[in-house]
Amino acid sequence: MVFLILSELNAVLNLKVHLTVLLSLMIMHTIRQRSQLHLLQHRNIHTNTSGAFSSRTLTAEQELLLLTSKLTFSKNEIEEILNLISNNKINWFSFFKLGCYHKTLALNFYNLQQISKELLFPKYLYEILNYISICTKAKNEANQLEIARILKSCKEKNIVCIPVKGAYLIPNIYKNFAIRYSGDIDFLVKYCDINQLHKVLTDLGYKQGKLDLVNHTITSLSRTEEILWKTKMSNLYPYYKLTDNEIYPVFKLDFRFALDDSLDKSSVNEIVDFTAQNGFTSQIHYLVHLCTHFYGEAKHTLSIYRAKDMNLIKLCDIREFALYCLTSKDQIEELLQFSRKYSLEKAIYYSFYCLSLVYNDDFSQEILQRLDIKELDFLHTFGDNATNENKVFKKDFWDRLFSCDNSDELSERPKFYIK
């Protein structure tokens, strides 16, 4: 009798193992099928007159969003934009929604005004967009003054902090404070400096914690939340400073000490050390950070849950900075060497793969070919972090790009979540 029970138990366990293996194989087969399909589409890309995107049929509003979410245009692209906005083809309220989600609205509005002086724009939306441009300029100007104060105080304590993303790109690439939205102020910093940095920021009036914009308060994290963040995240919990200004009621700071979920601090250490030794930051280092940031947010459950995964402004940043800095074979080689040194090839590949779909620039193809990654399953997976991407996207790239909410990809709330 005991032998019979043990035999049946063993059979059940074996069946469970076989089912688990079968399920894993089915998931991997699905991923590979999608990888092969996307790669085939990628290699046989069809473009419209602007050369901007693939053969997928886009709405006029989607097409106009992609065409105007950039700083530089070809003659064909300008003609395509003029054609789209002629004869009142655009539903401007639908376009407004897309621009808001992708954080490109101020840039889209500026480009449309520069390209066409005869926009048939609803007066109500025109006034709102004008307010957005004015407030964006005011906030970016205030951010730059705040950055200067922070860097000055850090320098006095021999701390090197590097402004990145909008903090660097707005004055150096966009060069117009009214056209590029910015939320927080981002920096790279060495982990060994974070205790001294905390003292500097406290003296400047900043506090780590959770922001309540409605009540204009900052509350401290619980001990459990603090430990969870410190053990899982590659950046410090945000620092906030409240203001009395209605346009920018708070300054928010984000300090990153590692470029990916491995929490390997050596890449940021090299970037900061290079800056300290040379008095400037390598352009390739800036570009690598932009790519790793985009990669992380596009594929993490927490970013997907918070609708921060596919904002087009991040691709625009990468495109414009890549056009600015990848001007020679040597710079491309430096990008490849740095990414390989710190195992960041997937982040670079994913970023330029998405760039190639949206903008179809020649330099994107060259980067992809030089990286020469054979296994492309990772293009279609996501997870709680880059070391645990065990889920497959149900929607394709274009559906995720234009949905304005991809939380339907999630079967449960992210495991790591702090309100």
Report on the structure:
This protein is of the alpha+beta class and 419 residues long. It has 17 helices and 9 strands. It has helices spanning 2-43, 60-68, 75-85, 92-102, 105-115, 123-156, 166-174, 194-203, 223-232, 266-278, 283-299, 301-305, 312-325, 329-341, 345-358, 362-371, 397-403, and strands at 162-164, 185-188, 207-208, 210-212, 217-219, 239-242, 250-256, 381-382, 391-392. Strands 1-2-7-6-3 form a 5-stranded mixed β-sheet, sandwiched between helices. A two-stranded antiparallel sheet has the order 4-5. Strands 8-9 form a two-stranded antiparallel sheet. A hairpin with a 7-residue loop joins strand 6 (239-242) and strand 7. Helix 2 (60-68) packs across helix 4, helix 11 packs antiparallel against helix 13 and helix 11 (283-299) packs across helix 15. It is globular, with a radius of gyration of 23 Å.
Q: Spatial order of the strands in the main sheet?
A: 1-2-7-6-3
| DSSP strand content | 5-15%
Q: How would you sum up the major sheet?
A: 5 strands, mixed
- pLDDT under 50 segments (min length 5)? 1-54
Fraction of residues in helix:
55-70%
SS summary, helix count: 17
Order of helix and strand elements from N to C terminus: HHHHHHEHEHEEEHEEHHHHHHHEEH
Mean pLDDT: 87
Number of strands: 9
Question: Globular, elongated, flat, extended or rod-shaped: what is the shape?
Answer: globular
Structural class estimated from helices and strands: alpha+beta
**In angstroms, what is the radius of gyration?**
23 Å
Separation of termini? 55 Å
